[in-house]
From TrEMBL:
Residues 319-369 form the SteA-like C-terminal domain. One of its GO terms (biological process) is thiamine diphosphate biosynthetic process. It comes from Thermohalobacter berrensis. The keyword Isomerase does not apply. This is Thiamine pyrophosphokinase.
Length: 372
């Protein structure tokens, strides 16, 4: 196997995909490649992916590598020092499991094939019970510390956007978020809910032609374009008040309010909508199960568990809604549509003077034939 392409690298895959061009070679430091990262690399149409971390560690059955191989994108693993050796935006050549750049040998790589992925996924499945035990313990431990989320002890910031008695759509860049957004497009157009993008969820709304009313998050994965277009920005801060995302807001010359709270940005978005008396909260792409959280690198879901207990009466989770119903074009519908289209044509034709004369002539001939 020989592959030649321009090298693009970043320690964060979500940042790298914004700079990738088709046929580039993506170089990442991503332990346990998750589905979201895999889909973004696939959409970038990269020629191959070189990972300087374990693509599947066996900790849990992450599906990212399987998706890359299924899409025909070779997945290679290289030593950790390769990441620093390779130069950005310079062509590299991969030949016989060896990597060269500007005729210099940079190191060897291992091809991760279907057999290897299958073996590691089996290991991940075996290890899942241990991970589940740790996940539950961590969730319960932190739930005790973060119970203020549901007891009203977290101060909700004042916002300009009116949410009372309105539907609120909260979009997170989670699994299948694009297809789910497309599936509820008619709902968005008809109901006109308040649109909240959680970090990159703001860009997801822009991709569908909608401008977010609010962007919430630590702002590490949302574009400048989205921040400049959105009507209101809420920066997720640590419980002690530190908000690194504010530095970016200041550089852009924008205004924002901070929301100091434990948990995830999607959690505080749900709290925000609930606190300001939204009549219905619709969530797209949110993280709601153990695999989702393990893929995010979180050891538990205490805040999410607590927040969903609080807002559950108003929450509709649209995750996977694109799988709910798939319409199929049936022959009887085509026949019915064709018949419906013919009816007005027949009526108009019968009312036309030449057609009336033809019918009268036919009636006269018929009468002559039967001797009337």
């Amino acid at each position: 196997m020989e592959i030649v392409g321009v090298a693009k690298k970043d320690k964060k895959t979500k940042n790298l995909v914004n700079r990738l061009n088709p046929k580039d070679i993506a170089i990442i430091k991503h332990k346990d490649i998750d589905e979201i990262a895999a889909h973004s690399l696939i959409e970038s149409k990269v020629q191959c992916v070189i990972n300087t971390e374990k693509s599947i560690s066996g900790k849990y059955p992450n599906r990212g590598p399987s998706l890359l191989l299924k899409s025909g994108i070779p997945l290679l693993e290289a030593p950790k020092d390769f990441f620093e050796k390779v130069k950005e935006n310079k062509p590299i050549t991969i030949k016989h499991n060896k990597i060269y750049q500007e005729r210099l040998f940079l190191g060897k790589c291992e091809i991760i094939n279907d057999k290897k992925v299958k073996e590691l996924l089996e290991l991940g499945n075996k290890n899942l019970e241990n991970e589940l035990d740790k996940f539950i313990e961590n969730t319960l431990e932190y739930a005790k510390k973060e119970k203020g989320l549901v007891l009203g002890k977290v101060k909700i910031p004042r916002i300009k956007t009116k949410l009372a008695k309105k539907h609120v759509l909260i979009v997170v860049r989670g699994k299948d978020y694009k297809r789910d957004l497309e599936a509820i497009k008619s709902y968005i157009d008809e109901v006109n809910p308040v649109l909240i993008g959680v970090d990159g969820g703001g860009d997801a709304l822009l991709e569908q032609g909608y401008i977010p009313d609010i962007v919430v998050g630590d702002l590490d994965s949302v574009s400048d374009k989205c921040l400049l277009l959105t009507k209101e920005i809420i920066v997720h801060a640590y419980p002690d008040g530190r908000a690194p995302g504010l530095n970016r807001i200041k550089k852009l010359g924008l205004n924002a309010v901070t929301f100091p709270a434990p948990g995830t940005s999607e959690d505080i978005s749900l709290l925000l909508a609930y606190n300001y008396d939204a009549s219905l909260i619709v969530a797209v792409g949110t993280h709601s199960n153990m695999i989702d959280f393990l893929e995010k690198g979180r050891k538990g879901m205490a805040s999410t568990f607590l927040v969903r207990l609080k807002v559950g009466s108003k929450l509709v989770d649209a995750k996977g809604v694109n799988q709910l119903y798939k319409s199929k074009l049936k022959l009887k519908y085509i026949f019915g549509l064709g018949l419906a289209a013919l009816i007005p044509i027949i009526i108009i034709s019968l009312m036309a003077p030449p057609m009336r004369e033809l019918i009268q002539l036919f009636q006269i001939k018929l009468k002559l034939l039967i001797g009337m």
